[in-house]
Amino acid sequence: MRRRRDAGRVREMAGSPRMDAIPDRTAVNALWLIKLRWAQVVGQAATVLVARIALGESLPVGALGALVALGLASNLALELHLRRGGVISERRQALTMVLDVALLTGLLYLTGGPLNPFGFLYLVQIALATVILHAAWTWALVLLSFAGFGLLLVDHAPLPVGDGTRMIGMWVALGVASAFIVHFLLRVTVALSTREDELAQARNLAARQERLASLATMAAGAAHELATPLGTVALVAKELERALAGKDPALVEDARLIREQVGRCRAILDQMAGGAGAAGESLAWISVAALLDEALAGARGEPPVVRKLAPEVASARVRLPPRAVSQALRSLVTNAQDASPPEAEVELAAVVRADVLVIDIVDRGRGMSEALLARIGEPFFTTKQPGRGMGLGLFLARAVVESLGGAMTFDSREGEGTRVTVTFPVDVEARARRRDRGRPGRVAS
Known about the structure:
Elements lengths: L24 H30 L6 H23 L6 H21 L10 H12 L2 H21 L5 H83 L5 H25 L3 H4 L3 E4 H8 L9 E4 L2 H4 L2 E4 L1 H18 L6 E8 L2 E7 L7 H6 L17 H11 L3 E6 L5 E8 L2 H11 L7
Parallel strand pairs: 2-4
Antiparallel strand pairs: 1-3, 4-5, 5-7, 6-7
Helix pairs in contact: 1-2, 2-3, 3-4, 3-5, 4-5, 4-6, 5-6, 6-7, 6-13, 9-11, 11-13
C-alpha cells in the first residue's frame, strides 16, 4: 500500500495548554499486540494446567512451561521497551508474531501434534497479522503457519488411516481458510484506510471553507466600512497631484504613490471578499485557451509567461466557474512571476487526461525548503518581502480549487524553482454527481 505524506500537521499555539500527541497507527498496533499476547500467555498456561491437573493428561510440563515462559519474557521485554519511550516498529511486531507462530507450533508438537484441536489458533495469528501488518508480512506468516502444521503432520506420521486423511484435509483447509481471511481482511482494511483518508480530506476541506467564509465576511465588512475613507483619500491625493503639478515633482510623486497604495488596498479587499466566488458563481462551458487568456489578462509583462498548449487541448472545453478559476490561476501566475528573475520565463502548460484538466505553472525562482512547503497555502503566510503580499493568494486559490473537487500540489527544491500543479474536473457538476452516487446510502433497519 502506498504511503501518503500527510499534509495536515498539529501545531501548539503559544500560551495554549499542551495536548498529548495522538499516537500513530504503529504505536496503537503495538499496544494491542502486547495486550493480546498477555491474554495468550495466560490462556496457554491455564490450558496446560487444566489438562495436566483436572484432566490428568500426561504432558511434558517442563518443556511446555519453558515455551510459555519464553512468550512471557518476550512480551515483558516489549512492554518495558514501550514504557521507556521506545518505538516498536512494524518489523519488530512482525518478528514477534513469527515467534508466536513458532511457539504455537512447539506447544502443538508437545501436546498431540496435528490431533490437538487447538491447531485452529494459527488462524487467530493470521487474522491479527492481517489487521496490524502490511500484506507482505501477513502472507509470510500464512506460509509459516502452513509449513508449521505440515511439519506436525510429517513428524507425527504415520497416523491412523482415518485420522491421517482427516488431518491432511485440515491442513488443506487451514491453507484455504488462511488465504480467504487474508484476502478479504486486506480488502476491508484498504477500504477502511481509504475511507479514513477521504474523511480526513473532507474535514480539512470543510475547515478551510469555514475559514474562507469567515475571511470573506470580514473582508466584506471591512470593504463596506473602508470604502468611504479610501475614496476620500484617493480623491484628496488626486487633487494634491493636480495642484502640485509643475511645482514640486517629489510631492507629486508622493501623491501618486498614495493613490497607488489606496488602489492596492481596494484590490486586497476585493480579493478577500471575492475569495468565495466559486460558491456563488454559476458554472459555464469555456475552452481551455479562453480560460488561460482570462487568467493572464491581469498578469504583468515581465517576467514573460510562455504557454505550452497543444491545439487539441486549447480547443477542449471545461465546465466550471470561469471568473473564480481564472482569478485563482492569475494569483498563481503572479506568484510565479514574483519568484522568477526578470529575464527568466514562467511556464504555463495544460493537458486534458480523461475527465481531468491538469495545469502546470513553473517558475525559475530560488525554490522552497521542506519547512516552507509544509506551511505554503496557510492564510497570511508569505515568503515575499514585506509590503509585497499578505499571504492570501495561495490560500484563496487552493480554497477555490478544492471547492470544485480539484487539487493543488507543489514540487519545489531549493535552487531549482517551483512547479505548481492544479487539477480540475472537466465537468465540475458531473464529477459532483458521480461522487454523490458513490457514497454509501443509509442502511435500512
